[in-house]
Every structure is written in C-alpha cells, then in structure tokens.
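ERR on first pass: missing label on line 2. Operator R.T. fixed the label and resubmitted. Corrected input:
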Amino acid sequence: MTEPQLARQLIQVGLVTNQQVRHAAETRRPGIGIAQALVESGATTAQAIQQVEPAAFTILPQNVQAQGIQSQGLQAQGTATNGATDSGSAVNGAAAHGAAVHAAAANSAGTALQTVEAHDAVLDAETTNANVGLGTGGAVIMDESGVTFDGEARGGDLDDPIMGTIVTYCNELLKIAVGLRASDMHLEPREHGLLPRYRVDGHLRSGGLIPKELQAPIVSRFKVLSNLDITENRLPQDGRFRATIGGHVFDFRVSSLPSIHGEKIVMRLLDRSALVTDLAQLGFAGKTRAHFMEMLSRSHGIILVTGPTGSGKTTTLYAALAAARDETKNVITVEDPVEYELEGVTQTAVQSDIDLTFAVQLRAILRQDPDVILVGEIRDGETAEIAIRAALTGHLVLSTLHTNSAVGAVTRLQDMGVAPFLLASSVAGVLAQRLARLICRGCKQPLDQNSEEYKDAVIRLRVQPGTPMFKGAGCELCSGTGYKGRLAIIELLSIDSEFRRAVMARDDADTMRRIATSGGMKTLWEDGIEKMTHGLTTAEEIGRVLLGSQEED
Ligand SMILES: [Zn+2]
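pass 2 clean. output:
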C-alpha cells in the first residue's frame, strides 16, 4: 500500500475529505506519514484509520511515493544518465516530484522549494487520478529557467524526463541563491531530507527541506557539473562550474564533504559582473582612500591586507589590483584558488597535490618580468621571505595575512623569521579590515535614544550618550532583515620613518600601535564608530564585528 492509495481509500470510505488530506499533507512535519499527519491535524483518529487500514501508520511518506509512481508504469528506473543514483527508488522519487517542481517553479516568490508543496502536489495528483507523469511539465519549465551552463549545450540531458526534472530542480536552487544575493549555497543532508541554506550578507538562511529521495540525484547533478568524480562519495572533493543565470555569469566553486547523512555540498557563488573593484564602494573614503591609492601607485614595496576569514580581504585585493593595473604593467597573481577572473591580469593557482606552493610559484613568477604581483596569502616564512625580497627589488607586491590588526601583521612577519631591516624597508602599508552589514536604505531610521536598545549600545560600545545610531526596521527590499549589502571597516597603517625605527628596534606591539595612532592612523574601532554614526551600519554590527577582536594578535 502506498501513501496516495491509503489517502484514496480513506476518502472513499468517507473518513476524511480530499481537502483534509491536502491540508494534512501541506502542514505535516518532514518525515511524517500521511496517517499520522491526519491524526495530528485533527481530521480523524488513529483508531478510525486503523480500522480502514491496519498498517496505515507504517507507511513511509517518501518511499511510498516512489512506488506509487512505479506502479503507474513509468519506465524510468536506471535510465538516469549520470548513473550515480544509489537506487532506482531515488530516481523514481525524483520523478514523483516533477509536478512539485513545476509548482515550485511557478511560485515566483520562490524563497524556498517547499517539501510540503512537493508532497501535496504528488498526493493531490494521485488522489484525483491525475497523471503525475513528467512529460510536458518538465520540458516547459526548462525553457523558462534561464539557466545555462558552460560546456553544456542545453543545461543537461532533457530527453530523459527524470534528469530533466532534477536539472530543473537544481536550476531553481541556483536561481533562489542568486535571487537572495547569497554568497554561498549549502545543500546539507539531514536525517529526513536535504536542507538548502543560503548565506546572505554573512548570515545563513534556511530554505525548505527537500525530500530525502531527491538528495542523491541533486548532489550527483552538482557533482557532474563541477567535474567531480560521482562514483566517489567517501572522500571530500572540490571543483567548479560556470553558469549564466538571468543574464549574469556566475562562477561556482563547489566542495563536497561526506557526512553521516550523505554528501554535503557547499557552493561559493562568484558573480563576475558584481565584483566591486571600486574602493569607494567597498567603504574606503577620504584620507584612507587617498593614502591607499598612493601606496598602490608605487613601483615597489609590499602592501598587506589583514583580517580574519570572511573579512573581505580578497575583494579588497582585487580592487587594489584593479587600481594598480594598467596596460604598461605586467600583473601576475598566485592564488588559492583563483576566485574571480580579472581582465589584463595573468592569474595562477597553487596546487598542493603537486607541491606547487605559494613559494614555488612565486619564484617562477619572478622569472616572468612582473611589475605587480599578488600573492593570495603569506602563510609561511619562505613565502614571506620571497615576497619581501621581490618587494625590495622593484616589484609592487600585494598579499594577505591572517592577523587581527595592522600592527599585528608586522609582528607576525617577525615571528615568521623575516629580519627587521627587511621588514622596515619593504612594507609600504598594512590594511586591516572587517565586513559589517549595511543598513538597508529602504527602511533606515534613527534609533530612539530613550530605548533600551540605544542605552545598552551606548554602554556596550562606550560611546557618548547622544551619539547618533540607526537601524533598519525591515522592509521588502531587505527581506525584513534591516540590512542590505556590506561595507568594509578599515584601519590603514602607512609606514613612516618613526614606525620604521620601531620595527628595526623590535618594539612590542603596544608601542608600535601607539606610534601608529599618534602618526594619524584611524583604528578599526574609530572607523567603525564613524560609519555607525553616519548611519551606514548599526551598533549591533559594530559590537559583533569589532568587540573583542581588536586588541589581540
Ligand atoms: Zn529594508
């Protein structure tokens, strides 16, 4: 007995109505069978259901659907072109959701592909004896999807109805991610399904749980796109693909990680057209911007960008590179990995599996007559040494370091064994940064100075009472979050003669910090508070991003 058959039987004996079945299917929790859902929704009792069908409560919601389709004679089993699905039932499960995908695709609000919709559509179609087949539905959606993949003429094998459905489903997921301006999309295997989660402005948002039987084919689809080995599901892998979505070209950097409930896929979305290469747009203003531009115009020296993971170092580096490049210069990068392709720049990537490290690649680059070199990250003394020697011999070198503050970068390089005199003579400047969420322009309003929230913020941030603060009330533009976009909070250390002396004398970090601030460096904290009072970001964001992270290193 399948779930739709059970529903049909219950309706036929007059125990429940078609509407009650639909309602129960719509509102049930993932993994709950229709019998249990009917009881929980108050439509009938467990006893009554068991009188009609004693085994009603043992019918599983998902497998049942797959069998239901099978019994309708769909000759789909084992024909999926990727050949990667674990079982025929998974493929059939996918087939069952053809109608559901159509429903979800038609739903332009589309914040999530709702499981309940999927269940409902299938159940509804079956209880009314409609044709759940995929033939037309799938094909129509494909034409509307507006998603094309590089090296794949038609976005997948659409002659195969099941693959067509999975392709559509995957396209919808990508479109949702793009629509939300997500930086990453996660497909997280849970016990009862696959949970899509989207990182928007640094924060994760969950979509609707995708039925478990779609997990394997969806994961396989993305693995195929990313050139991963689909027969390997025990080891982590990484790859990438490129897709055009709504006229924009996106690069997706994909990684898979086997977990106890299956492979988890995480995709980083890189929107080539949205790469901000304008320093002003990133949050650089006034003197800071002028100083940074001056550093970038130099013909030699090293400029370092520091900050924790996710602080936007790479974006700033690319913007810096865009500012420093011109047709008269040979610009070469070594990255791990290449995130965005930049016009007029030779970009290379490290490859740890063949021992092509930053240090090895950097040596090769120096034989290529470079003017400007971008080193993705300085992780070890060897790379630091080569980068600094390059900076001393007529090259402008840009790189990142994993430290919290600008001064911290100098002490970190000393710890890596770089001699003080090399440091003092090569480092042109160090930029420390964090990313804070921008208040949504659509719903920005001043924070009421009599509110608890305001008073708490004054105490927490130790600012003067009366300091202006703002927040977003939440509107359609920002999906009710009050934030839209991000900006950099910046601290720029330009190395002057007094700071150089301190480096040579191996002064401690506190002393160097004092020298830097008395030399006019605006600290991360000062920049953050300034951006808060100007209504660019909130006290909450400043607290989250800056408190407790500035004095270490
Ligand atoms: Zn808003």
